[in-house]
Amino acid sequence: MSVEYIFTSCLTALSPSRLPGLNYSLNPYTGCEHGCAYCYSPSVFKDQSIAESWGKVVRIKRNIVETLMQEVHRKDRGVVGLSTVTDPYQPVEKNLELTRKCIEVLLEHDFPVSIQTKSDLVLRDSDLIVPKKFDVGVTITTIDPELARLLEPKASPPDARAQVLEEFSGRGVDTWIFLGPIIPEINDDEENLRKIVEIAAKTKSKVLYDKLNLKPWVMERLEPVLESLKPGLAGRIPPTISHGHDYQKIISSKIIPLCRELGIKCEAAFASGAAGGD
Ligand code: SF4
Q: Which among 11, 43, 75, 202 is least surrounded, fewest beta carbons within 10 Å?
């Protein structure tokens, strides 16, 4: 599937963030060509056309580096989340290097950066991503490459993501795994969860976990994938993960003992109620 790229400009580079551990969010792109079937970033924009074109259209904030260069002089220092509603290392970044240039500015002005990605392109910037000033988080939903291809069509395969953690952890950079979204009957089996926690143990990465979030437009994109895997599952999922059923407690009861057994720190993501995109 081809992706349409549209150049736009932005008024702000650093936006205040309510996400745990972040002061700002920085999103060089609007839209994400990784095109994950469960992505709920479109709901942040509250715009049907953005939701319907998610994965097919990427807007490029052509002046984000210049905007950031001005803001770093007048905004208080704080942790910058890169990124919260897009993937900073999606394929278009390979040529444009907007993320890399933003990182250079943030590093020079002493803003700590928390990176979250599903792409091994982040390794390109390992000359800039140094211990103490950066942490690197990688989302891993499944260790099955075929399932990953269905859920996250253009992201790096799971073993390449594990390699990212190995490389950065080996260089002394703090690393973490975002284990989510956990989807009933798709990736919530003990074997999958154990293998992901084992990657965390091997790479000394903290685990943050989260269940599927059925924000607006999620089910429209996820349903065909679910139906191709398990006919009828799409109808069973909303009642399973609703507050009444408390699916979060069920996944906690699976993940916490695994992390304890392997000596890994873990916690439920967004326990404060805030929500992220990637
Ligand atoms: S979940 Fe993250 S990587 Fe996937 S499409 Fe959404 S923003 Fe991109």
A: 11
Question: Which secondary structure element, helix H or strand E, spans residue 266, and what is its range?
Answer: strand 266-268
- The 10s digit of each residue's pLDDT in 245-273 is 799 999 999 999 999 999 999 999 976 44
Residue 210 maps to a domain: yes
CA 74 / ligand 1 centre spacing (Å): 30
Q: What tokens appear for 248 in the block?
A: 């979060």
Question: What is the domain range of residue 167?
Answer: 4-268
**Per the domain annotation, does 273 fall within a domain?**
no
Residue 226 in any domain: the answer is yes
Per residue in 57-88, pLDDT (tens digit) is: 999 999 999 999 999 999 999 999 999 999 99
Total number of domains in the chain: 1
CATH of the domain at 179: 3.20.20.70
> Rounded to an integer, what distance in angstroms lies between the CA atom of residue 207 and that of residue 205?
6
What pTM did the predictor assign?
A: 0.95
Atom of ligand 1 nearest to the CA of 278: 2
Q: Is residue 28 part of a domain?
A: yes
Ligand 1 center–CA 261 separation, angstroms? 30
Which among 37, 19, 147 has a CA at the least distance from the CA of 84?
19
